[in-house]
Amino acid sequence: MSNINILAISGSLRPNSSNAAIIRQVTAFAPPGVTINQYNGLATLPHFNPDLDNDTPPAPVFELRTLLKAADAVLICTPEYAFGVPGSLKNALDWTVSSGEFVDKPVALITASSVGQNAHAALLLTLGAISAKVADDAKLLIPFIRTKVNSDGEVIDEEVLQALKMVLKALIGAINDQ
Ligand SMILES: Cc1cc2nc3c(=O)[nH]c(=O)nc-3n(C[C@H](O)[C@H](O)[C@H](O)COP(=O)(O)O)c2cc1C
C-alpha cells in the first residue's frame, strides 16, 4: 500500500511530554510514503456522554471520528496516571465505542511511563473491547521513561530506539496485511 496515513495520539497533554517525544521519534523513523500526524484535540473533547453519542455529536467528537476514519492505523503513546489510563485518553476512546472507528483498525500501543504496566494492560483490554487490531509486535511498554528522553525532548536510549523501529515496522506490516 502506498501513502499510508497514521494518526498518533498522545495520552499526555504536557508540552514537554516524553510520550510526545516518542511520537516525534517514531515519525522521524517513518519511511517514504508513510505520514504520521499527531491528533491535538484531546484536551478539547467534551466528557463522554451517551446521550450526545449520535450521528451529530459535538464538533470535537466529529473531528476525532473523521480523523480516525481517514487513518490507516493509529499509534497510541501514553503515560500511566495513578495506576490507570489517563482520563483524557480513555475519554477519547469511549467516544468511539458505538461509532466503531477502531473496528479492525491496526493500532500500536506504546506505554511510556515510570512503570506503566497497569495502564498498558487496561488499554489493551479497552482496545479489545473496541475491536482494534493490536499485533503482538506493536505493543511496547517503556518503563523509566524520564531517563530515556533528554531535556531537548530526544529519545536517547538505544534499546528504546530499536524497539520503536520494530513497533513502526509491525504497524506498517499490519496495514499492508489488511
Ligand atoms: C498525577 C500523576 C500520577 C502518576 N502516576 C503514575 C503511575 O501510576 N504509574 C507510573 O508509571 N507513572 C506515573 N506517573 C509518572 C508518569 O508516568 C511520568 O510523569 C511520565 O513521564 C508522564 O508522561 P509524559 O512525560 O509523556 O507527560 C504519574 C505522574 C503524574 C503527574
TrEMBL record:
One cellular-component annotation, GO: cytosol
SUPFAM superfamilies xref list: Flavoproteins (SSF52218)
Domain NADPH-dependent FMN reductase-like: from-to ranges: 5-143
Pfam families, per database record: FMN_red
Organism of derivation: Mucilaginibacter paludis DSM 18603
GO molecular function, one term: FMN binding
InterPro entries for this protein: Flavoprotein-like_sf, FMN_Rdtase-like_dom, NAD(P)H-dep_reductase
Name of the protein: NADPH-dependent FMN reductase
